[in-house]
Structures are given as structure tokens and as C-alpha cells.
Here is the input.
Amino acid sequence: MPAGKRIGIVIPSSNVVIEPLVAQSFWKSDNTVHFSRLGVVNIELDGGALAQFKMVEQLSAAKKLGDARVDAIVWGGTSSSWLGIERDEEYCRLIEKETGISTTTCVLEMNRTVASMGARRIAMVTPYTDDVHNRILDNYEELGFPRPTGQNLGGTLSNDFASISPNTIEDMVWNVAKDSPDVIMIMCTNLRGAGVAENLSKQLGLPVLDSAIATLQAGSRLISGSS
Here is the structure.
């Protein structure tokens, strides 16, 4: 039996959702997943919070995965949704240039999925404050989408997001579905939205994309060689 491949994922240090999701999803797989962590505690737009995402820090966390000789690297955080998608694009270019390892991010993977669907009207579910949430909507509008609709919870501490019940996330998805979007995006990898996305995609008859699931899908796609 051929040896499996290795997926490297950089996650925010406060994230407690992605690793259990990997354990559920990969336990029968020959492929393995390996982690590095970037120090992220709070999500706000002030200087201190934004400094958590300095490119030099992000690159350092990713390059450590090169020591494990991973076959792909994925940034499993949604920071570019409010910092600007170009941040993730630059991140991928720099990592690939310095390591030669194929790299992507969960946000780029979600956007890739949205593009493949031809979806235009987006509804966004986030746990963030109004200013962060609205910055995300602004950025997607700047990408050429009609002004997205959405709902947010107003939180700042990343570790608290994992305590939000799936029932609450489900209610939010149902609420934003009333606007008849083409796609709903659960934008935070520390939300327990994986099961919600799978169940409500079927019930609503429209795609519900979860960013934690997108992180794993991105890694699987890269190691399979899919474009």
C-alpha cells in the first residue's frame, strides 16, 4: 500500500475546532494532518489585534511545517476575510517561493467554491463584532459581489467562539437564508459549523459553506493534485 501524504495546517492558537474535526474526518485515511499554530487571541480592528497577523509571523508558523516535510500547507484562519483577500494571495506566493510547498487558505478555498458555483448573492454568518463583520461584507462587495447580507454575534475572544452552540449557528443560518442567497458562508474556523453546514445544505437546498470544512477540503485537494 502506498504511503499517504501529509497535509500541514496552520491554525490560530486559540482554535479548538479544526483538530477534532480532522480526527473525525481522517481516522481511516492513509493521509495525515500536521499542525502549526499562529498566536491569535482576539478578533478586533485595533492595532494590537491586527498585529497578530503580521506576515512575518504567519510565514514563520507556516515554514515550521516544512520541517515535517508536508506535501501541502493550508492557513486555517479567516483573517483575510476582513484584512483583504490579497493578504492570503501574498501569503501563498511567499510560502511557495520559500518552501516549494503548494499552499492555500480556507478563505481562498471558499471563494474558489463560490466561483465554481457561479454564485453571486452571499449571506455571511460570523461570530464577530459589527465593525469586523461589516468589513468582511465590504471586502466581498469590493470583490464584485452584490452587497452581502448576514448575521453576527458581536464576540471578540476567539476561544469563546468554540463555545457557541451548533443550535445558535443553525438559527443564524436559517435567519440569513430568508434573504434567498445563492450561498451561505460560515466565516470562522473556531465555530462548530461543520455539522450545521452539512445538514442545512440538504434542508435548505442551497450550499452552506463552513470554513473549517473548507480548510480540510483545501488540503485534500492540494495533495490530490487537483487544480
